[in-house]
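We include the pair:
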Amino acid sequence: ISSLQLKKKKMSVACLDGPTVTEFVNDSKAFNKSVNEQFDMLDADGDGVLSRSKLRMRSGRFSSREYELQSNEEITILYDTLFEKFDADQNGTIDREEFRSLMKEIMLAKARGIGNSPILVILQGDSLLMRAVEHDQHGQK
């Protein structure tokens, strides 16, 4: 991928390690602000909850470009799993607190998977992982 292609897609190459992600998640003020922004982007109608249909309409925005490569059946299975685990009150929607819990678990799982050795990754400019990199670069501890 060329740098021009990355700019057009609002993506960047960044150096990232697990502790950077963990520190970002543990900074509740910075993490919650970023998660709230993500939630607001997904909650297009502003009703304060996310449904499967809202997430399907914006699936490429939910976490990564990988979803765009998955079949509708795979995405449905993924959402069913997410809702089963994180829809705490089982009302068929995910509210802001449930979403924060989901994002925290996903981010900490990514941190564990990345480990302590720095890696180079291509990140969407508005992704939570990019926010973790920016948080680290700005020394917001």
